[in-house]
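Hi Y.,

Following your request, here is the sequence exactly as I used it, all 286 residues.
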Amino acid sequence: MLSPLNDPHILIPFATLLGLFVGSFLNVVIHRLPVMMERAWAAEAANLRGEPPAEEEPFDLARPRSRCPHCGQSISAFDNVPLVSYLLLRGRCRHCHTPISCRYPMVEALTALLSGYAAYRFGFSLATLGALAFVWTMVALAFIDFDTQLLPDDLTLPLLWIGLTLNLCATYTPLPEAVIGAMAGYLALWAVYWLFKLLTGKEGMGHGDFKLLAAIGAWLGWKMLPLTVVLASVAGAVIGGTLIAFRRSTREKPIPFGPFLALAGLSVLFWGEAIAARLSFFVLAS
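Below is the corresponding structure, written out as tokens. Let me know if you'd prefer a different format.
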């Protein structure tokens, strides 16, 4: 018997709604995972010094319950419905009426839209399940890197292995191309990193960028890596230049590359062949 999800009129709204709730969870991941990493590093440092770990309340993706950062009141389930609660509360805490960052509904809406498009693009297939995992991880990585300039191994490494696993049956690209893509993605930015460091004495990017491009290569294959890097570089140059022009940033302040890699990876996942064909046409025409 055919699944109801074979019908795109059911699949796309279902994926969009699912993405909305996953986006709410991603807000938790974006905020808490870097804090969990810092606590783990502090505990490891204390252990190396022979000191007992600091006594702190449990803190992970489930504990403690979400609360208002201003007044400390726990947020009820009714006030935590993605997008709906934000609109009903007019973007303010129910208890202290402090404005809530618009970033929360933005992440929820972005994740929902990308999830719905993934379902539209790939239909009822294994490729859609993979694309949803890719979308959700990329959203989390982009915002974490934007906030903290960190790309957690807890996200990049599973992403790489999931990509290779899906391509065992050539879901997005043949497995040999995926394996070469993972290797080439890591080594390409690793080489750029060391060349830049030898020439300037500074670090131009973090090691997390190597792993993220390796993961993208594992999903999409080595042939899509040049396009991914070009798109990420152009987006970084345009957005970075705009921020500097409007004095929202300075040349001395590092701009994380991860969000641009994530944007490029999503673009290539959805439209890679079309973009490559269009670029080839312009190159031949010129």
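The mean pLDDT is 90.

Thanks again,
Q.
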